[in-house]
Amino acid sequence: MADGNGTKLAGRANYQNGEYVFSMNDASASTHNLEVGDSGKTYLMSNTVARTINLPSPVAGVCYKFIMTDTTADSSIVATAAIIKGGIHAGNSYLTLAGTTIVCELAGAIGDCLSFVSDGTNWYVDGQSAHAAGFSVS
Predict the structure, then answer these.
(1) Disulfide engineering: 52 pairs with which of 10, 31, 37, 113, CB 3.0-4.6 Å?
(2) pLDDT tens digits, residue range 50-97?
(3) Is there a contact between 137 and 129 (Cβ–Cβ < 8 Å)?
(4) Is 68 within 8 Å of 109 (Cβ atoms)?
């Protein structure tokens, strides 16, 4: 994974349960540019500050999972175009997520999660939130 300047974060990542779980727990607002090589990893998002996570261009079979470990600030997961498709179970309803950006909202809860899988054209998302307003899309 690289930060907004393209610098590898391996030296700053907090590895847990092997090399595929990373804690995003920087104390300052940050931007993270995911790479195809990060496929299959799970990111524990401590949203104590705003984060922006940029997905790479879609490549078939690439996948990521995000689990919220703190929701005191909004964070965004952004695609290169309006190619996010799918939906999640949110509270007592189903929320369709289609667009460019998914915001992990303050109204979310610890344990809310999103999974992304690409077919080479789109990013397909599924997941769950304890609250109907845990995620939004634009």
Answers:
(1) 31
(2) 889 999 999 999 999 999 998 889 999 999 999 999 999 998 989 898
(3) no
(4) yes
Looking at residue 24, its amino acid is: M
Q: Which of 4, 6, 137 is nearest to 83 (CA)?
A: 137
Q: For residue 37, which phi and psi values (nearest 5 degrees)?
A: -65, -15
Query: In Å, how far from its chain's centre is CA 123?
Result: 12
Q: Counting Cβ atoms within 10 Å, is residue 101 exposed (0-12), middle (13-18) or buried (19+)?
A: middle
CA dihedral 71, 74, 78, 83 (to 10 degrees): 80
Distance between CA atoms of residues 135 and 80, nearest Å:
19
Q: Which residues contact 38 (CB under 8 A, 6 or more apart)?
A: 1, 64
